[in-house]
């Protein structure tokens, strides 16, 4: 983990700051993408607005099905925020995660950043000084994959991609913009979800990025990983396969594996953080 971070840092020196902030500060913290130079000052009106925004977001989301978009303050110090739970978790897990997204915590993870995405296992928080609502954000992203199970073969990977593609179409048509599905025999379980400020077209576009940009194979270094978690700025994809597990354990429980994340003994994540992944974006 440390050496992986270091080698990424050597390749992308501008990422060092972000990587240094990867230490978990709450039980379920996963990763963060913080604006490195666009900073607010201590005691500024923007800081005041942001602190209130994060508090309002938490309270609004707990009564709004685990999702909220809000803004706080007036131009030019307005703060915009979005918070969302991943749908495969229970309401209790969702609320516990939302409760952890405090402004104090955010200021420790992304000190004085005006724009940030902070991923937790069960939810994520995004904020900015610019209005980003309804815009597809798949350039901010983070991925991790199952490094314990052996990779799956090309035909299986093709099936996974097809499965997720179908699931993406389904999710974009639903009010909650989420779909979770597992095969009856437990060979695959997958979960996809978009932030609910997107249009159905925007949702599909965000999820399609994984397929169009070949992020599945990029994430795992050209391996067909048996399980993966791709978290974007406004959507996410997770999948877990059991082609390898089924021979050793017939009592596979996909949901448990999928939701257990880093807690499950079956998962060991190798983490790669990309903030400037698109060739079109300056490194
Ligand atoms: C919230 O943070 C606390 C303290 O860091 C941690 O024990 C708890 O597990 C976190 N919540 C979730 C849902 O993980
Ligand atoms: C801003 O406040 C933080 C903590 O309150 C402190 O660590 C930091 O040095 C302050 N920065 C400036 C520029 O005053
Ligand atoms: C995806 O959907 C198509 C069309 O409904 C179907 O034929 C195909 O079997 C589905 N693929 C998977 C992997 O579920
Ligand atoms: C199979 O999986 C179940 C559920 O995860 C676990 O309780 C059991 O110990 C496993 N069996 C073997 C032989 O690994």
From TrEMBL:
Residues 28-132, 138-244 form the Gnk2-homologous domain. Gene3D superfamilies: Gnk2 domain, C-X8-C-X2-C motif. GO terms for molecular function: kinase activity. Residues 1-18 form the signal peptide. The keyword Membrane does not apply. The keyword Transferase applies. Keywords: Kinase, Receptor, Repeat, Signal, Transferase. It comes from the Eukaryota. PANTHER family: CYSTEINE-RICH RECEPTOR-LIKE PROTEIN KINASE 9-RELATED, CYSTEINE-RICH REPEAT SECRETORY PROTEIN. This is Cysteine-rich receptor-like kinase. It comes from Rhynchospora pubera.
């Amino acid at each position: 983990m440390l050496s992986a971070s270091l080698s990424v840092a050597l390749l992308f020196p501008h990422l060092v700051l972000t990587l240094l902030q990867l230490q978990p500060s709450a039980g379920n913290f996963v990763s963060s993408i913080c604006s490195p130079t666009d900073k607010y000052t201590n005691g500024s009106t923007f800081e005041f607005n942001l602190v209130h925004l994060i508090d309002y977001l938490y309270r609004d989301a707990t009564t709004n099905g685990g999702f909220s978009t809000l803004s706080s303050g007036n131009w030019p110090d307005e703060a915009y925020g979005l918070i969302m739970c991943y749908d495969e978790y229970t309401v209790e897990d969702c609320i516990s995660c939302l409760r952890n997204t405090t402004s104090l915590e955010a200021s420790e993870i992304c000190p004085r950043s005006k724009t940030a995405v902070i991923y937790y296992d069960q939810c994520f928080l995004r904020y900015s000084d610019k209005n980003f609502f309804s815009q597809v954000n798949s350039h901010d992203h983070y991925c991790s994959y199952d490094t314990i199970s052996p990779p799956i073969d090309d035909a299986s990977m093709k099936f996974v991609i097809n499965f997720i593609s179908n699931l993406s179409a389904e999710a974009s048509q639903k009010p909650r913009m989420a779909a979770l599905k597992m095969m009856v025999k437990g060979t695959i379980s997958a979960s996809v979800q978009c932030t609910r400020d997107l249009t159905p077209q925007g949702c599909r576009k965000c999820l399609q990025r994984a397929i169009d940009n070949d992020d599945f194979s990029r994430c795992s270094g050209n391996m067909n990983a048996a399980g993966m978690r791709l978290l974007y700025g406004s959507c996410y994809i997770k999948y877990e396969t059991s082609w390898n597990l089924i021979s050793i354990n017939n009592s596979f429980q996909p949901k448990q594996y999928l939701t257990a994340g880093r807690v499950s003994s079956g998962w060991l994540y190798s983490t790669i953080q990309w903030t400037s992944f698109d060739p079109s974006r300056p490194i």
